[in-house]
Amino acid sequence: VQLVESGGGSVQAGGSLRLSCTASGGVVSINTMGWYRQQQLVASITNDGISNYGDSVKGRFTISRGGAKTIDLQMNSLKPEDTGVYYCNLKMYGMDTWGRGTLVTVSS
To answer: What is the pLDDT of residue 95?
Structure first.
């Protein structure tokens, strides 16, 4: 299984970015996908649409699924402290797969 992220970039505080992650390979429909930064959960979503967010992003970020293999993260009202490398994660059969990460830079 491989994960490919896209959508990172630079934005000023208050702006928006959208990240996408697509899985390829032997992905089953029952899984949880999500985004992490500095080893902390940003947001995750199960195959049946149950989402979970880190406290710092609640109300600003929205995670969504486009089927079993694709997730998007809409990031609004970005703050400088949101800066970092965002890693896509897939949890399946108790195992974790990670993407290479995409850099988000928010300037003040």
So the answer is: 93
